[in-house]
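Think of the structure tokens as a kind of shorthand, similar to the way a musician reads notation: each symbol stands for something richer, in this case the local conformation of the backbone. In the example below we present two proteins back to back. Begin with the first one, reading the sequence and then the tokens, and try to describe in your own words what changes along the chain.
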Amino acid sequence: MLNFTRIRTQSRNCRSLPLAGKEGMDYSDPKKKGNAIGKVLVAAGLVTFCLVMMKQSPTFNTPTQFSHHEPGVTHVLVTGGAGYIGSHAALRLLKDSYRVTIVDNLSRGNLAAVKILQQLFPEPGRLQFIYADLGDGAAVNRIFSENAFDAVMHFAAVAYVGESTLDPLRYYHNITSNTLVVLKAMVLHGVHTLIYSSTCATYGEPEKMPITEETPQMPINPYGKAKKMAEDIILDLSKQKPALAVMILRYFNVIGSDPEGRLGEAPRPELREQGRISGACFDAARGIIPGLKVRGTDYKTPDGTCVRDYIDVTDLVDAHVKALEKAKPGKVGIYNVGTGKGRSVKEFVAACKKATGVDIKVEYLPRRPGDYAEVYSDPRKIRQELNWTARYTDLEESLRIAWRWQKVHRNGYGPVLAAAI
């Protein structure tokens, strides 16, 4: 059974009950006085019953394995753990015997992904899910007070460049402000290790390739700006709190899915227009959309389309786990997570056609606001310091693995299509 907790201030069945009565009640009348006393006793009995039932609940003020530190066990809070990257990270942590708490408001995540993880790791004390919004400071503080976290992997964020240009305030609130809420709770409750999921969008459009960790950060869209602001807050805090162990991972364009087919990418239907190119390719291959829209063919690149560094999600979560293992108090590590090789959008589409076996129709459109021409990483630092190297670097193979999941999950995490298995 899924260990599911929803943060609320009152029990749904035990909200305060108003005492019935009449204005101008004559308390000198013994019958009326008796009625009032009877109603008070009934109400008191109901409240007592509620309290008894709540105390019988296994989640009411009962210490659990999640609420105390245990020697040899690292308890990781994974924010946004119901999302595409967060769920894959949670899977890897659970496989490596970490204790995991997922916090997600499900605005972009999928509860079904969490249920799959629970089915894979049903043992008590392995995984719990808490439905909460990181923008709710009281809820976040309560989560930290009721759980003994050793580290935080902070993935939760809206993450579409185009959408950020249309709704910038949402991005600054969701990314920057919510990160501040998490940091305050960490400080208040003595959680000293943070693995922060950042982005190459903080670099903007550098003049020189490849991008190193020393490349100036000059983001050109609200998504990148919000992430950089969050990074700056984290860096300032680390100077004032020397006990903090911080790792900031700036990763590039994520593709792929779990090689064993347990998890995949399933964005909300209304976000398909803003989503990753891999999702759009698969939607076109399945006939969900009539074709693929490529935005921008006049960039200063070899074929005129954007060049990106595509990192497989399995490699990405491996980098996060290695960062967690190497995090040290008083140290801040900043790393680019990429393959070191740029691929154009046209190259990506060609690989997607081969992976799916479908001759996808392509429509070329004007540029999308906030996009940049060319971005790819120099991964030497992370290789030297964390002993991490991307292994899934065959673009077509990563897409083929993801396509297997997509074929049987036409409705995302909805019913599996038996005919396609």
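Once you have a description of the first chain, move to the second and do the same.
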Amino acid sequence: MSPTFDQIHPPQRLLMGPGPINADPRVLRALSAPLIGQYDPAMTYYMNETMQLYRGVFETTNDATLLIDGTSRAGIEAVLVSLIQPGERVLVPIFGRFGHLLREIAERCGAEVHTLECEWGQVFRPEQIEAAIREVKPSVLALVQGDTSTTMCQPLEDIGAICRREGVLFYSDATASLAGNPLKTDEWGLDAVTAGLQKCLAGPSGSSPLTLSPRAVEVVHARRHVEAGISSGSDRLAEPGARIRSNYFDLSMVLDYWGELRLNHHTEATSMLYGARECALLLVNEGMDNAIARHALHGQAMVEGLKGLGLALFGDQAHRMNNVSAVMIPDGLDGDGLRRSMLEDFGIEIGTSFGPLHGKVWRLGVMGYNARRDTVLTTLAALEQTLRRGGVKTVAGGGVGAALDFYQEHQRQAANGRANPSAGGQS
């Protein structure tokens, strides 16, 4: 007998891990808007609006600012496969899981990959990266900004100038950090940045915003090819460079699709475009500085609450992301069992980590729509009760109380004009 299926009924969850998070209701409403054709003038208008909005999010004037249909990893792969020619040298500094991801993708692109590694929970100094660039002489530097596996945020401010002096293209994966931590694409000299919606942008996974500098676009256009089935013959380069080793992620063709030529490449994921546009609109209307300050405020309140529960923070706190924190799992406690209890008893999801940190830390995210006072306090209250039932001695109300004390002090300082909402996070 065939099984009977019904509509999906997902359980109610408060997603307070390292991502994904609960999408903003306004984004969910945008996702449900009616579909239109990809060449409808309204669609072209929304695509242009989306490009302009994301220039504000990335803090750039780059014309080449658009969406890749796919998760944040799709954006990463599109940039790397389009910028890297087989045999070129690429430098990847690794301070967590996602640096290893950049290395693997660059290797799959045929690059000669060189790495620089530091202990998980730390970041690199600019002079370390500069020395490696001078030694390796890469074509591309691929560097994660915020790595959720360690919660660290790599400072980028000085790296762009180094890359310009050495003739290196500078790419950063800002999936976990964009809109929760400062990222100034033009001011810091970034040539390519990619992100996702499922963290500080308050949306679902499935669309990857990216931006390319004119230098990066020049490299991509030098490898431009037009599919034979849509080519007029006159739209091809006389001497095209090495063809980009992916059709779907070929940014030269994607740029033609989003640009004035509007050459067909794929059918745009209309609903995801609506959602991604709404994510950017919410941030631009809030103001990027205000959004970052909100993440810093509530992220630090979570940290104060975790300390109030007697939990030890992991990593270099001077370089922790505003929006994700990690604590050591108390000795003798079943870390996965506690996470399961949080989910089953309270409907709250928190995370562990990967590789050398798996089973050793919990990661808690305060980002996007969930970067709010009520979500912080609810999570801390549930965590306290779950710890106590697991045999961990905590001060009754210690977590919520410490967070409330922090909020109260912040309000007092704000009233006196001295509030520093970015305390506890670095760019």
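Compare your description with these statements about the second chain. Residues 422-427 have pLDDT under 50 and may be disordered.
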